[in-house]
Amino acid sequence: MNYVPKVNDYVKWTTALGMVHEGWVYYKGTPDDNEKRIKNSWVPVSNYITIEIATKPRPQCDLSKFMHKRIHVCICCYEDCWHELEFIRRRVSKQDDTNPDELSSQIFGSTMMLNTK
Fold this sequence. Notes:
The chain has one domain (9-116). The protein is 20% helix and 34% strand. It has helices spanning 34-39, 100-116, and strands at residues 9-14, 20-28, 48-57, 70-78, 85-90. It starts with 8 loop residues before the first strand and ends with a helix.
């Protein structure tokens, strides 16, 4: 079974050319009804995700006019390439800076302490 990415998953994408990209799934498109598009002689479209591979601070500007405080660098990964993705971990939300690995070890450690008493 192939991995189906979700927003807030951290993935590693090794392309057919051997290039490796890592980052958070920032956006996932919704599948379109391509049968209807083809029937109406429209161009079929592919479902895709964007992977955030970097961020940088926005230059001095009026932040009330911008939705994001940082500039996000994203790449597109189309559904045809999702089999090349490797799931690494998941975060709670885009605002969550907690390392999921540390969080799970803290929970596991506290559970072990409860069981030993």
